[in-house]
Amino acid sequence: MDLTKILFALGGVLFLLLLGLALGRLWRSDARVFRRMIIAIVVVIVAVVAFAGIKVKLVMTKMASFPKGPPPEAVTTAKLESQKWPQSLRAVGSVEPIQGVLIAADLPGVVKAVRFESGSRVKAGDVLVEIDTQQEQAQLRSAEAKRDMMGLSLRRAQDLLRTQANSQSQLDQAQADFRTSDAAVSETQAVISRKTIKAPFDGVAGVRQVNPGQYVNAGAAIVPVTALENLYVNFSVPQQNLSRLQPGTEVRVSSDATGRDVFTGKITAVNSMVDEATRNILVQATVANPETKLRPGIFVSVEVVLPETDEIVAAPASAIAYAPFGDSVYVVEEMKDPEGKSYKGVRQQFVKVGATRGDLIALTSGVKPGEEVVTSGVFKLRPKAAVNVNNTVQPGADPKPTPADT
């Protein structure tokens, strides 16, 4: 409207200017030339004003067709749903072997042979390392020869006693000498057996720490052997949760060392004492490890699944806008612009987030079931911004996702 007034004012100024010029020439020309000039001036002015008016109207019409403010942002949305999630306790635990031992040399000697490879599976009774027993073998032959001699002496004493050519005390001495020599044989055999180191149970051998020809002292480490099919997970929880922990309660275990794998097990033991320093109680769970991905010694995240359930409002995790001053979601609603026209816009709503389940996150306050929230494009929104909802492709909202590229 202001532009139209300006154009008409310019047209009026131009008209007065031309009229002044024409009147000025009136004094220097005849009436005939003056009339022609006046007609030409009027025609030009009318044409200019008409053309300006048409252009102004077209421009104003085009501007009126443009929406006021920025264009709507393209987003995806989801309806909030009320769900029942099992209550759980979370803790950090450590993996321990149910059967695991560092095999060491029982007696000193030179390693004669190593019968296993590092990282290989071994069975109970498999020979792992042989320590040289040449000296013991010689001692065994000497002891066996002495025992045989004592056996002959014993039989001779028995025969003499039957003919009354020998006394009972001599027979008793012969029997004692035989038993002593037989014990010496058994002792030497035990020493030889102790120098053959065997696997105590089925498991996986670790990295060997000896080589053939190496001299080892008594107690020197040979190799760790661990059974990995089932493992203990030890973790601590605050004492106020003691009544909620019962043997048989399900636990879920995960670790960054095993990627996205989740291992399940059950609580098998709760410690009989609470730690006086931390007021935490130690809990032990037994977890199946069929693919032997878990290894003793690693830290794990433990989730104890309790029988109670919580009713929560679940939303895709991508709907949360995280910020230092508070987490929020954008709720889609019908709104009105300053001119009273309706449009689809967003309202920023601060929320309190809770536990997560896969792609979903619990919202414990701030929203209610049935509300429509933005699930993608959150970062480019502001309160009362117009949105264009397109749910052709939506972000994941699976409580137990199984990505294809794990």
Describe this protein's structure.
- The chain is α+β, with helices and mostly antiparallel strands and 406 residues long.
- The protein has 4 domains: 2-65; 73-81 and 310-389, conserved putative lor/sdh protein from methanococcus maripaludis s2 fold, CATH 2.40.420; 89-98 and 226-309, Efflux pump adaptor protein, beta barrel domain (Elongation Factor Tu (Ef-tu), domain 3), CATH 2.40.30; 133-194, Orthogonal Bundle (Helix Hairpins).
- It has helices spanning 2-26, 31-65, 134-162, 168-194; strands at residues 73-79, 81-97, 100-104, 109-114, 121-122, 127-131, 196-198, 203-205, 215-216, 221-226, 230-238, 250-254, 262-274, 280-288, 299-316, 328-336, 342-350, 352-357, 360-365, 372-376, 387-389.
- A 6-stranded antiparallel β-barrel has the order 2-11-14-13-12-15. It has a 4-stranded antiparallel beta sheet with strand order 3-10-8-5, with no helix packed on it. Strands 7-6-4-9 form a 4-stranded antiparallel beta sheet.
- Helix 1 (2-26) packs antiparallel against helix 2 and helix 3 packs antiparallel against helix 4.
- The model has no long low-confidence stretch (mean pLDDT 83).
Write a short abstract of this structure:
The protein is α+β, with helices and mostly antiparallel strands. The protein has helices at residues 2-26, 31-65, 134-162, 168-194, and strands at residues 73-79, 81-97, 100-104, 109-114, 121-122, 127-131, 196-198, 203-205, 215-216, 221-226, 230-238, 250-254, 262-274, 280-288, 299-316, 328-336, 342-350, 352-357, 360-365, 372-376, 387-389.
